[in-house]
Amino acid sequence: MPYVKIEVIEGVTREQKAALVADVTRSLVDRLGKRPEQVFVVIDEVSADNWGAAGIVVSEREAAQREVADAANSSQ
């Protein structure tokens, strides 16, 4: 009975989540010979304030990227 936990930053659509569940389930059926009803997939959404990468909280990195993009657009 495989249990797969996927953590993503908030903003994933319902359709994207459904596709992930279907893809992961299909992969475990194909690769491990499991029946679909044996496969459990859980998707947890985490706030960008609670996720860090490369030493920076993602929400801060995204804010900095927006500032750079805004500055580039206003200079054109």
Describe how the helices and strands are arranged.
Elements: E1 3-9, H1 14-32, E2 40-46, E3 52-53, E4 56-57, H2 58-74
Parallel strand pairs: 1-2
Antiparallel strand pairs: 3-4
Shape: elongated
Can you summarize the main beta sheet? 2 strands, parallel
C-alpha-based Rg, rounded: 18 Å
Uncertain stretches: none
Strand order of the largest sheet: 1-2
Strand element count: 4
Proportion of residues in β-strands: 15-25%
Roughly what percent helix?
40-55%
How many DSSP H or I helices? 2
Distance between the termini: 56 Å
What would the average pLDDT be, to the nearest integer? 93
Look at the helices and sheets and give the structural class: alpha+beta
User: From N to C, what is the helix and strand string?
Assistant: EHEEEH
